[in-house]
Design goal:
It is a single chain. This protein has 249 residues and is α/β, with parallel strands linked by helices. Helix content is 35%, strand content 30%. The protein has seven helices and eleven strands. The strands form two sheets. Strands 3-2-1-4-5-11 form a six-stranded mixed beta sheet, sandwiched between helices. The protein has two domains: 143 residues, ATPase, nucleotide binding domain (Nucleotidyltransferase, domain 5, 2-Layer Sandwich), CATH 3.30.420.40; 95 residues, 2-Layer Sandwich (Nucleotidyltransferase, domain 5), CATH 3.30.420.40. The radius of gyration is 18 Å and the shape is globular. Helix 4 crosses helix 5.
Length: 249
Amino acid sequence: MVILAMDTATDQLSLALGRKSGELLASWTSAVPKMHATLLHPLLDQMLSAVGVSLQDIGALAVGVGPGSYTGVRIAVTAAKVFAYTLNIPVVTVSSLEAAAFSARAHRGLVIPVFDARRQAAYSAAFRADPHKSAWERVLEDGRRDFPQIVNEVLEVAHKGETVLLLGNASSALADLLYQKGDQTQVGVYDERTFLSGEAVFRIGLRAIETQPDVPETSDNIESVHNLVPNYMQMAEAQARLLPDRQGG
């Protein structure tokens, strides 16, 4: 079975094709911002052609559902809904934060993805990695948090002497705050870009598929095509501006 993975929650468009056996067939990441809707289908067609796979060969989808760009995240989710409905195949939802953090899975300690959410806040989560044990554990759920809250929650879950590795476009600001408050906590910045590979979406989605190989619809990550929605975590800025007017504010 071939699995198609995609994510458009950040400035990057990420695509991948792989088999249920774990074999990665192709992975593509485009760093052209605000072109996801234009590039997704042509790039997918090129990938399918390059590896000799057709749309009809795809047996499952893994899609990043954010949090991230309000406009961007909808592009991959909408495409996944169309493919799932047309091909009658299941969709696995993947946290875009986890997919970004997955690039640092060789690190031993806490991995903290932080995507800028404006107004001194970030979309964040936390994962504990131990490559010697092939371990990867979520320790903080996805959320939109202000910077002080992120610092406090990270320090609460960090073990004594554990290294904290930040990645994403809010990394530098949060690293400074952690240095100031973390005392002996070792803090590093892995990458200030919100790099998110299609392979990471594929690998995380594959784990969810393997959890329930016979009846995938029973998995918490597998969504009905009708229930599949992005994980926005906040209103679009235009909506936020309109709300006070509608409430008479």
